[in-house]
């Protein structure tokens, strides 16, 4: 009898975490490494949020809570959806989990049966396909290349839907590309979904507040109210509020689905951290002015990275609408060799050689389903980004 389950053979560890871990290990060895792999803001959690957590501890808010969230936080989430997205939900329609990842996982575990298909536009966040596999479903990746700015077209969505399709996972702005869908682009997709009533929509809005220039964020149930009853609108405090370690995500959707997700959570983690919930409550109800200030910083970093990477030989780097990632194309580097003789046959080889020869850690594109590319997280200082991009420029210039 084997120790490990057959299910485990269907999935792999997160490549983004693997890159970050490797970069940290090299740093610990004393090597000069710049890690651009982690999707994590470099800002501290705002003081008023930290203080709310301390008050919760001092007030003894350290015991079990309701399985899927305290009433106060659920009410604040309902207010947030109404205020920012024009969506009306009741607390019974809200689930709070241990990070956005658990929210998505719970929904898939609660709904997927063997043979169910889940459409995942590629490039995709690395965890989407593996979570579908863990839930017993079949991920259906639909490649969206640089020619469409890494966005899914209605024609490709229509072609991917079959009688077995249960979910369509939508992420805007996107991890890993930063691409954001305009209202018209999203409406074209929702028009397709209206024709297929068996398809549920899972909208991952984690980067909602990280949008630049004049881009206006919108979410599927907001754009097409007729899809409200089969949409799970997911979000969290990790990215916008620099609370990645606090592990609070949330979602709103039909009561039956929310109840099913609560059953999964009740037999896995139980409630999210009580203290983190009170911190998230303050995040959603307290001052929001810093969001605009941080957005300006991230936009400046985006512009810096896009400009410098487009000056690198063999690289094309589109300018994304949001998040804090860019997803450069390295077609011009494929087939060339490094000074040490390594032939760049794909983006994984490129990323490995870049790390070994320059100390810059990025995530190779194959991990996200579209090659030849790599992902850069620019959630770090201008100084670090300039140095990293200069090293990438030198590396590309050295290829022959």
TrEMBL record:
Catalysed reaction equations from the record: L-aspartate + 2-oxoglutarate = oxaloacetate + L-glutamate
Co-factor requirement: pyridoxal 5'-phosphate
Protein name according to UniProt: Aminotransferase
Family: Belongs to the class-I pyridoxal-phosphate-dependent aminotransferase family.
Species per Swiss-Prot/TrEMBL record: Pseudogemmobacter lacusdianii
PANTHER family: ASPARTATE AMINOTRANSFERASE
The UniProt record lists the keyword Amino-acid biosynthesis: no
Keyword Ribonucleoprotein: no
Domain Aminotransferase class I/classII large: 31-392
SUPFAM superfamilies given in the database record: PLP-dependent transferases
GO molecular-function terms, A-Z: transaminase activity
């Amino acid at each position: 009898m084997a120790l490990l389950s057959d299910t485990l053979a269907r999935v792999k560890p997160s490549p983004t975490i693997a890159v970050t871990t490797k970069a940290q290990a090299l740093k610990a060895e004393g090597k000069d490494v710049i890690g651009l792999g982690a999707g994590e803001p470099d800002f501290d959690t705002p003081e008023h949020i930290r203080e709310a957590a301390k008050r919760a501890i001092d007030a003894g808010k350290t015991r079990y809570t309701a399985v899927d969230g305290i009433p106060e936080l659920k009410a604040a989430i309902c207010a947030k959806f109404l205020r920012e997205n024009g969506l009306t939900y009741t607390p019974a329609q809200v689930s709070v989990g241990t990070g956005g990842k658990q929210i998505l996982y719970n929904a898939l575990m609660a709904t997927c049966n063997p043979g169910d298909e889940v459409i995942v536009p590629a490039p995709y966040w690395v965890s989407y396909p593996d979570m579908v596999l863990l839930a017993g479903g079949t991920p259906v990746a639909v490649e969206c290349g640089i020619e469409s700015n890494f966005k899914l077209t209605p024609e490709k969505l229509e072609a991917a839907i079959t009688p077995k399709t249960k979910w369509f996972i939508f992420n805007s702005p996107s991890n890993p590309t930063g691409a954001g869908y305009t209202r018209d682009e999203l409406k074209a997709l929702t028009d397709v979904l209206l024709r297929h009533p068996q398809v549920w929509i899972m909208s991952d809005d984690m980067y909602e507040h990280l949008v630049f220039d004049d881009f206006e964020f919108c979410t599927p149930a907001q754009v097409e109210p007729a899809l409200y009853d089969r949409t799970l609108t997911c979000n969290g405090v990790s990215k916008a509020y620099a609370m990645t370690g606090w592990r609070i995500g949330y979602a709103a959707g039909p009561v039956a689905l929310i109840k099913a997700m609560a059953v999964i959570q009740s037999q896995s983690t139980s409630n999210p951290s009580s203290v983190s919930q009170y911190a998230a409550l303050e995040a959603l109800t307290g001052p929001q002015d810093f969001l605009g200030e941080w957005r300006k910083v991230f936009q400046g970093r985006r512009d810096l990275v896009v400009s410098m990477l487009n000056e690198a030989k063999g690289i094309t780097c589109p300018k994304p609408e949001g998040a804090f990632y860019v997803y450069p194309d390295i077609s011009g580097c494929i087939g060339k060799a490094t000074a040490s003789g390594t032939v760049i046959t794909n983006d994984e080889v490129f990323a490995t050689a870049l790390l070994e020869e320059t100390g810059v850690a990025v995530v190779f594109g194959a991990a996200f389903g579209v090659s030849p590319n790599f992902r850069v997280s620019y959630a770090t200082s201008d100084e670090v980004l300039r140095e990293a991009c200069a090293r990438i420029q030198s590396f590309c210039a050295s290829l022959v």
